[in-house]
Amino acid sequence: MDSPFLEAIAKGIASAGFRVARFEFPYMRARREGGRKGPPDRGPVLSESWRETIRALAGADGPPGLVIGGKSLGGRIASMVADEAGVGGLVCLGYPFHPPGRPDVLRVAHLEKLRTPGLIVQGERDAFGTRDEVARYSLSKKISVVFLPDGDHSFRPRASSGRTEAQNLTEAVARVTAFLEERSAGSPRSA
Is the pLDDT of residue 187 over 90? Predict the structure, then answer.
């Protein structure tokens, strides 16, 4: 939760006046505490971690004003619980549409029927789903997908592109805060 990528995104969103909360899945917390790199937790553990976090953050206003999301797996799991939790929005940064090199193993079935308004910010050449690949998916009309020029899974462009990582992160923050502005009209500003 404190990677340079997430630090930059969180600080950018917070500087726009939104409250930002971060958490770690149990396997990430174990990595931090024990220094041992283990595999991610199973889906039910990850989903329940999100549900617990939503309950803790929702407060008196309940989840409708809360926008959830995350980077890669965190965003994927958030997208899987968003409708059930009744949150106000979803933001996925570098969504893992498929494993790298396996475009036939799609992770989009639930995104076809998503009712929660969502924003996916994706690098154009993300190994988990490029612009050309994502264009072929049947995603819910509630989901907007924006692509960052020449970005990879963490939005880093190639030096030869003439684009910088800082430019892509700045654009990602701008896109997310615009989405949050739409969601927060008349409600508390939290993400």
Answer: no
H/E segment holding residue 43: helix 43-58
Q: Residue 87: give its domain's CATH number.
A: 3.40.50.1820
Q: What share of the chain is helix, strand, coil (3-state, %, to 5)?
A: 45, 15, 40
pTM: 0.90
Task: Look at the chain and report how many structural domains it folds into.
Answer: 1
| 191: in domain | no
Find the range with the poorest average confidence among 22-26, 66-70, 162-166.
22-26
> What is the pLDDT, as a whole number, of residue 170?
97
List the domain range (segments joined by +) for residue 41: 4-184
Cβ–Cβ < 8 Å for 151, 168: yes
Q: Cα–Cα distances in Å, from 57 out to 19, 29, 159?
A: 11, 19, 40
Domain membership flag for residue 141? yes
Rg (Cα) of the chain, in Å, rounded? 16
120: in domain: yes
